[in-house]
Write a structure and sequence with these properties.
mainly alpha; 225 residues
Length: 225
């Protein structure tokens, strides 16, 4: 670049022996040429150089250590394998932040309350002996709790039995309880059968047990049923 600069100055001035002030002035004019800007490394060039320097430093032996380039490659492979394993075991990161994404509809009705709010409402009705309302609200709380934890989705169109079937996978030890709770919800909500203290206690106990249980595998997204 220096040689090109000197050549440019000489060609520009038509002389090769300027005094100091003239040389400085010609140099400033020459450096103002946009062509010199394009010669500067781009941000991409700098990033690529930094990555290259890092890899070169990683693969270069240091001091008395018996450093083998194959060892460095092995370390990189192990790190990548750990990242992939984490994704497979715990699921994609977005699944951990789905509590705020619950649907405004739950089993065909408008319902924006949280699982905790639904549980509290169910307890209020149970305390008043209103078992129909208590039963329906507690099953909704169970479904909303699974949704908030990112274990099972309950988008519009999801039925109680559909949600129970989806919950079979993460909670294989509670299959019969989930199915019984879903049937009880349908009986009270749609078939106009009356809820009972025993039925409410069973659904409430199942809800509490699922809340304390770690899913058997990574959460999966449920479709509409």
């Amino acid at each position: 670049m220096i040689a090109a600069l000197l050549t440019g100055i000489a060609l520009h001035a038509g002389v090769v022996d300027p005094d100091r002030d003239e040389a400085r002035e010609w140099a400033e004019r020459e450096l103002a040429d946009p062509a010199y800007d394009t010669a500067e490394p781009t941000p991409f060039d700098r990033i690529a150089q930094a990555i290259g320097d890092f890899l070169d430093d990683l693969l270069t032996p240091r001091g008395e250590l018996d450093w083998n380039p194959a060892l460095a490659v092995g370390i990189v492979v192990v790190v990548i394998a750990l990242v992939v394993a984490a994704v497979l075991i715990w699921g994609r990161p977005r699944l951990a932040h789905r509590a705020a994404e619950r649907s405004a509809l739950l089993f065909g009705d408008q319902e924006s309350r949280s699982a905790a709010e639904l549980r509290a409402a169910a307890e209020t009705h149970a305390g008043a002996g209103e078992w129909d309302e208590a039963m329906v609200l507690r099953f909704r709380a169970l479904a909303r709790g699974l949704e908030e934890r990112g274990i099972v989705d309950a988008p519009p169109g999801t039925t109680a039995r559909g949600l129970a079937q989806r919950a079979h996978h993460p909670f294989p030890g509670h299959v019969s309880g989930l199915d019984a709770a879903a049937r009880g919800f349908d009986d009270v909500r749609y078939l106009r059968r009356h809820g009972t203290a025993e039925l409410y206690a069973a659904v409430a106990g199942l809800d509490d047990e699922l809340a304390r249980t770690t899913p058997a595998r990574a959460p999966e997204t449920a479709g509409a049923w």
